[in-house]
Write a structure and sequence with these properties.
The protein has 270 residues and is an all-alpha fold. The protein contains 12 helices and no strands. The two termini are 58 Å apart.
């Protein structure tokens, strides 16, 4: 199968997420109009800390419009093949996420639609992003790149909830579900489904786990209980070279050829 066919699903998913992120950014531009308030803000007001809430909203939209595309770029093969670029861009993105995106999202979560269940859903997503990012950075510093990729997939997955959740809200609204129930379902569904999908995709396949099993060193003399028994080929191939002392093979005859008797081989090969 050609390489481009194998990489097609991954590239298609990245393209859809990039388009979704760009669409959300365009829809969020009215939040930066300081003279007029967009309908979303008017619907939320009044809130307990209005100035803090408005500032957190603008910080969250700005940081999300930068962090999500950067995370998608860090997931590409071309940038992963350039370690210096990947490292410095990853550091900038990590500081942006932990310093702006997550804190502003936590502030906005306490006034989220749906009451306590809505707040809990946003806080869970924020906790997954923050913990996975910290764990992924620690894994990269100890050069455990397998766990680093797994953690970063959780970060990108939870960021993609902003795209999948909005798409699911449109579908549920077309289906005629209750708006409040549809909102909670569109929030909790992508958050849990994305976390589960990342865990399933990050688990090694059965073949990978079989190949990673340690092979115990078994001497050939112990592996051959009787010279009359046949040994499976797979078992013989799994034996390391150093554990096969030829002198201990039961069926191997010992040839003693003396220099005084040059025709001693006639005993064995008449």
């Amino acid at each position: 199968m050609p390489d481009w066919v194998v990489a097609l699903p991954r590239r298609s998913l990245l393209l859809l997420l990039v388009l979704g992120s760009a669409l959300i950014t365009l829809m969020s531009l009215p939040y930066f109009d300081f003279e007029t308030l967009p309908p979303f803000v008017i619907e939320k007001l009044p809130v307990k800390f209005e100035a803090l809430w408005l500032a957190s909203l603008r910080v969250h939209v700005t940081s999300a419009s930068l962090a999500f595309p950067l995370c998608l770029a860090l997931m590409t093969r071309s940038l992963q093949r350039r370690p210096p670029w990947h490292r410095w861009l990853g550091r900038f993105t990590g500081v942006l996420v932990l310093g702006a995106l997550v804190p502003s999202g936590v502030v906005l979560a306490f006034d989220a639609k749906g009451g306590a269940p809505g707040t809990a859903g946003f806080l869970l997503s924020a906790a997954i992003i923050a913990s996975a990012l910290v764990y992924g950075v620690a894994a990269a510093r100890r050069r455990d790149f397998v766990m680093h990729r797994r953690a970063m997939r959780h970060v990108v997955g939870q960021m993609s909830v902003a795209v999948s959740s909005r798409a699911l809200i449109v579908v549920l609204d077309r289906a005629g579900l209750n708006p409040d129930f549809a909102y909670l379902l569109a929030l909790w569904g992508p958050v849990l489904a994305t976390a589960l999908a990342v865990e399933l995709l990050s688990r090694p396949s059965l073949l990978t786990r079989l190949l990673s099993l340690p092979c115990r060193s078994v001497p050939l003399a112990r592996a051959l209980p009787s010279s009359r028994r046949s040994i499976p080929l797979v078992r013989l191939l799994s034996l390391p070279r150093r554990s096969i002392p030829l002198a201990r093979v039961p069926s191997a005859p010992r040839l003693s050829i003396s220099a005084r008797s040059p025709h001693a081989l006639e005993r064995y090969f008449p």
